[in-house]
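Give me the fold.
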Amino acid sequence: MKSVGMLRTSKKPLILARSVAYVCNHYQINFFYFSPEDVDIDNKKINAQVFKNGQWIRQLVDFPTVVDNEPMKTGNKEIYAALKETSILTTNPIGGKNKVFKLLKKSQLFDDVLIPYVLVEEPDDVITYLEKYNKILLKPVFSNQGRNITAIERNGESYKVINDHTVEEINHEELIKLIVQKFLSPDYICQPFIESKTKDGSPFDIRLHVRKNDKGKWEKVKIYPRIGMGKNITSNISQGGSIAPIIPFLKSNFGDDWKEVKNRLEILCESFPKRFESLYSYDLDALGIDLGIDLKGNIGLFEVNTYPGQQFFYAEDAEVRVAYYRYLLGLKNKE
């Protein structure tokens, strides 16, 4: 019997799992939740949690047809490999920022939004960008939910080192020492700083949240701004940011140009995922595309994430997520 299993590290099903369970029930899809500890590789069985009559109950089940998985952690390689033998795993890796930006640059398909970057391999990589752009951003190659991001701005003979809560002024010798100590290991990338700030000076980005639907095609789930209240650099929600409805936000910050900005975001929602997926030899199921917009309305790509969060719109995400299950299960004609 065809089924869908949601694989997460957490042993307790959370709001997303419950939301998905309700939608699956509507479409009569057999759905269950499980964590790595629940998997019996030898017998190809799972001690799953099934949602019945408003509560989760344990039930022994076979490996599912489709696994809605979180990105694999190193310790779970064997379990993921066993599941892949019989199941379709929805979430595939896209690589760290350096790999992603290399692919984007090489393809020449993203010149409309691509921000120049360099992998920091020696202090001169940062110094060269500071001489060219005056203010630069340093961020870890592997996504860290907005943590460990630093901006550096040239200020005459000195430099301002800026993080979310502090601004420190240092000289050239101190800058070299800082780069060696902090930005060479683990890997960082360096980019020109895009002044993506609200009229009151708070940093923001725009998240395009997209997923595959019941036709196996990309669909917009939500476009929303993330605002770093009381922050100098980041707008990541996990770091204390907030979100807002997109139209009032654009009206407030871009005045008469808000419709044009929104239209460009809608176009990117439609065109970017298809272009991006073409860079990989396997399917992707969902993307979180983070964009900055300067005061002139220029759009730049900050980051592309697989496995994007949905904590403010569980229902909308669950509906499109289950639609993709239906496609993978063959419950609707593939077009």
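The helical segments are 15-26, 77-84, 97-107, 123-133, 172-183, 246-254, 258-277, 314-329.
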